[in-house]
Design goal:
By secondary structure, this protein is of the alpha/beta class. It has 2 domains: 183 residues, Rossmann fold (3-Layer(aba) Sandwich), CATH 3.40.50; 209 residues, CoaB-like (Rossmann fold), CATH 3.40.50.10300. 35% of the residues lie in helices and 24% in strands. It has an 8-stranded mixed beta sheet, with helices on both faces. It is elongated.
Length: 406
Amino acid sequence: MKQKTVVVGVSGGIAAFKVIELIKNLKKENINIFVIMTKSAEAIVNPEEFQKISGNKVYRTLFEKNFNYKTVLKNRKVDHIELADKADLVIILPATANIIGKIANGIADDFLTTTLFATQAPVLICPSMNIHMWENPIVQENIKKLQSLGYQCIGPDSGLLACGYEGKGRLTDISKIKKEILALLNKQELLKGRRIIITAGGTREPIDDIRFITNRSSGRMGIAIAETCFLQGADVLLLRAKNAVKPRYPIQEKTFETADELASLLKQHAPTCNICFHTAAVSDFKIAVQEGKIPSEQALVLQLMPREKIYTQIKASNPRITLIAFKAEWKKSDKELLEKAKRKLHNSNIDFLVVNDVGKPKQGFNVDTNAAIAVAKDGTYKKFPLQSKTQLADRLVDYIRQSIIL
């Protein structure tokens, strides 16, 4: 395994001095460390201390003394972009209410925040602040927003705080943070060497050359799974509906509009893949398309004809592929969802079926949260409660990976 690079962003919390211990521990694991300090952090720890223990330059300001834009244009090198590209993981420690608020609201006004927004590496946030600051609803809203976007968060813990208060707000123990960092770095290798194809978004089926019918799928669940697999080291091919949301990471993708286009892409690319997450919301019907624009002066009757399910064609292209299909239901109990899933698995070549109830609030189409039940061919299953689609994707991929012993 190549040497990993961790960028540590130190903001102006009193717990900043604890970063020294963390860096020493990470260096023992042969991890390359770069430190970025905010202006407030410099008032707590001397930057020279971080430079000495990390062995690398400490970054503090976007525009250093004698900055010359001509040099940047000549060399095509920008420090915070280069550092963002080097990172395998970015940690914000301690993460104050201020830096959390900046990140959550897209403010990039210093070296740390510009690096953070430029990186495509996972980000771990380690909050540390006064108990009342931590409990402030604005801070809690910001944390929830970041978690829904895929940022990892550890802590804070409860205990005696620097301000003299007793309660939640204390920086998580350095040994626990180190363990979390190593777990996140190791996770980047879990799907190494695996070729995974993922479908996402809803199809559009033309009525004439102007109009079409579609569904409410945004593709968020499929995109979240694609991002999770990508971050775990897989070679990912995303088949994304043209109207679906786009991934944050540089994932290889091909786009489709109709069910026929998606079927063609799967037939072409599934044979080279090990795993398929078929999350796309595919039209159940096809329509006899009329040329031109149908006049709107009178009532129109559309003939919707059932179409062959795309999931039945995937293993015809690659019998060895592990197929994870998704099925949306409407206002069903968990018992009913399980029964329907088991029947479908019994009568199909699907290896895992993920069922969810889109008739319930805050789950399903066009929302950032979801709940689901993943059912295996042998009838075993795992329930995933309501959570962000990013969190669900991470836990679902872990469950599938462990189930098939990758």
